[in-house]
Amino acid sequence: MSNIYESAANSLGLFSSPCLTKVELRVVCKGISDRDALSKPDPCVVLKMQSHGQWLEVDRTEVIRSCINPTFSKVFTVDFYFEEVQRLRYELYDICSNHNGLKEADFLGAMECTLGQIVSQRKLSKCLLKQGNTVGKASITVIAEELSGNDDYVELSFSARKLDDKDFFSKSDPFLEIFRMNDDATQQLVHRTETVMNNLNPVWKTFKVSLNSLCSGDHDRILKCTVWDWDSNGKHDFIGEYQATFKEMRGAMDGRQVQWECINPKYKVKKKNYKNSGIVILNQCKIIKMHSFLDYIMGGCQIQFTVAIDFTASNGDPRNSCSLHYIHPYQPNEYLKALVAVGEICQDYDSDKMFPAFGFGARIPPDFKVSHDFAVNFNEDNPECAGIQGVVEAYQNCLPKIQLYGPTNIAPIIQKVAKSASEEMHTKEAMQYFILLILTDGVITDMADTREAIVHASHLPMSVIIVGVGNADFSDMQMLDGDDGILRSPKGEPVLRDIVQFVPFRNFKHASPAALAKSVLAEVPNQVVDYYNSKGIKPKDLSEYESSRTFGP
Questions:
Q1: Angle between helical axes of 387-398 and 334-346 (0-180°, round to 10)
Q2: What proportions of the chain, in percent to the nearest 5, are helix, strand and coil?
């Protein structure tokens, strides 16, 4: 086995410290107060995790309309580290009906706990605290379940035909709920489909759920499935129900359909000629094998690491000791510290250890025009530097030759790396994944173009890490997280997946380089896995990779 794998194994502890297990968290709320006499709340729960004293959003549930006792379908999946205190905060909001973002939402209460508390108790219930930490009437229950062994997912496509009509002036608005029956006779909501309006023959969207969530890995476990007619007041009408098992569902794996009669027990007793309240059809059942980050690395996937450095005038004259670019003979500046901390981890996953390094926001020789994507080594045909040390040397050599200027535009450099990632995407193989590290001292000027570039890049094998250097106010950088938790282009197109990580370097000024690296790179393994799994790209077999690769003497 080549050195890259040994290096990868050695540094994986920094890249992704040993996760004890993955945990699925489900949320139920009770007793939410009505906003007013005319309408019930439209609740949504936001999960946040504490990192270096800041609460960062992890994910959020769906919005359930007109509901005071919501059981959310959304499952939060988090990594559990036994050796760490992982602080969680659940925030409940009443979402404005015509706007899914939090800006217009009413804050209804919050609950803080640790992941360890939930895992040890399996089920944690607490009152939600309102503003000023006063105890409200509403409560929240979080149920934890370990994802043990089987990380496979199953993709299901349901439809129905001839459902009972429950509405006077229009047809039913059906949705389907699937519950797993637990060993203790309780039931657990696994999935709730969207509502298909005014349709007795609905086709629901394909959805993905872990095999662990669906049946706890037990293919004969009973699943209770209920069809409802949605009503805007939250009092949904019961259409019918049926029982199934995953073993039965697997009958739809080879292109066949599996069908169940949807039964209303009351009608069955009352009506003489009652047959059913409709037929529910499973059109597709597909098991998706989830591969790990190491599967891809061991299969030959290389991390292509690119650095982009901010050379705008706001950094200060590099000859002045107050400048963020000042080269101290014995003490590296913040740019160098961040570069080395992140770069030294990434270089273990790149066999040739040649890294492109670019600068932006400077006037460059010979004509001193402003450039936002120039090669730091001034070799536009080959911007690669030998190792992280080579990037450091190119950075130090270029400083006296350029004139710091502006503005702070980062879209061009994202587009440049995206072009390479786009070429890789067309190979349909898991061979190169691109990480762009952007080091900047201030808020970016081309926010609209940057959002557009990131949305485009989210379709590619690529992640973007932005480290804010210096003491500027970086709060505007949170614009990279959209209004409703999803980054959107100026045209409103959402990112396909979350690929951006932003951290201010000052949060790690007194921490070890490993702490910064761990923080900014922690999401990368999941981003790599999410990208390739979503594209259905499997890791290359290690033996196949070894035989196809030519090693030097």
A1: 150
A2: 25, 35, 40
Peptide bond into 553 cis (omega under 30): no
User: What is the band of 14 on the pLDDT scale with cuts at 50, 70, 90?
Assistant: very low
The letter for the amino acid at 316 is G
Contact 136, 130 (CB under 8 A): yes
Neighbours of 420 (CB within 10 A): 18
* Cα of 75 vs its chain's centroid, Å: 13
Which has more pLDDT, 485 or 226? 226
Tokens of 278: 């409709």
288 Cβ contact list (under 8 Å, min separation 6): 152, 153, 154, 155, 208, 533
Please list the residues that pair with 359 across neighbouring strands: 309, 374
Please, which residues have CB within 8 angstroms of residue 511's CB and are 6 or more apart in sequence?
Answer: none
Written as six digits, the tokens of 467 are 């480290």
What was the pLDDT predicted at 482? 56
User: What is the Cβ-side half-sphere exposure of residue 393, based on CA atoms within 13 angstroms?
Assistant: 8
What is the distance between the alpha carbons of residues 466 and 157, in angstroms, rounded to a whole number? 39
Q: Which residues contact 164 (CB under 8 A, 6 or more apart)?
A: 172, 200, 239, 240, 264, 277, 278
Q: What's the start-to-end Cα distance of the chain, in Å?
A: 14
**How many CA atoms are closer than 13 Å to the CA of 183, on its beta-carbon side?**
3
* 407: preceding bond cis by omega (within 30 degrees): yes
What is the rounded distance in angstroms from the CA atom of residue 188 to the CA atom of residue 447? 43
Angstrom distance (rounded) from CA 108 to CA 92: 5
Number of neighbouring beta carbons within 10 Å of residue 376: 27
Render the burial of 469-486: b for 16+ CB within 10 Å, e for the rest. Answer: bbebebeebeebebebbe
Q: Count of CB atoms within 10 A of residue 175's CB? A: 19
- pLDDT at residue 543, as a whole number: 45
54 Cβ partners below 8 Å, 6+ apart? 507
| Position with higher pLDDT, 544 vs 332 | 332
pLDDT tens track for 219-272: 999 999 999 999 988 899 999 999 999 999 999 988 899 999 999 999 999 888
**Of 367-371, 437-441, 530-534, minimum mean pLDDT range:** 530-534
Number of H helices, E strands in the chain: 13, 26
CA distance 423 to 406: 30
